[in-house]
Specification:
- With about 120 residues, the protein is mainly beta.
- A hairpin with a 6-residue loop joins strand 4 and strand 5.
- The radius of gyration is 13 Å and the shape is globular.
Length: about 120
């Protein structure tokens, strides 16, 4: 059974940085893809970043472009999300996802099979 465990969330001042990690068990990351999503109170879950381990390609959505960066740690079966220059609008629960349904838009939550429990990121302005 695939399990995803996020860590690294917390409270940071605006302009600061956080590094999130997602550890995957029973899931071979080096031949698959994973993604980070976030969900703010009262809002829909939205895709933040996508990473395909096979080619090392990363894609970013919306406000994540230019500020966030995903990186892999194949040995630890982990996907990291480095978030810089954080603003209050980045406050949300952050989730990692695995098991993308083939040919689907990675930004849609419904196209992912496995989810972690989430880690809270709060940016104080």
């Amino acid at each position: 059974q695939v399990q995803l465990v996020e860590s690294g969330g917390g409270t940071v001042q605006a302009g600061g940085s956080l590094r999130l990690s997602c550890a995957a068990s029973s899931y071979t990351v080096n031949r698959n893809s994973m993604a980070w999503f976030r969900q703010a109170p009262g809002k829909e879950r939205e895709g933040v970043a996508f990473f395909y381990f096979g080619h090392g390609n990363a894609f970013y959505n919306g406000a994540a472009k230019g500020r966030f960066r995903v990186s892999q740690d194949n040995a630890a079966n982990t996907l990291n999300l480095q978030m810089n220059n954080l603003t209050a609008e980045d406050t949300a629960m952050y989730y990692c996802a695995a098991g993308l349904l083939s040919g689907r838009d990675w930004r849609r939550p419904s196209t992912w099979t496995y989810w972690g429990q989430g880690t809270q990121v709060t940016v104080a302005s």
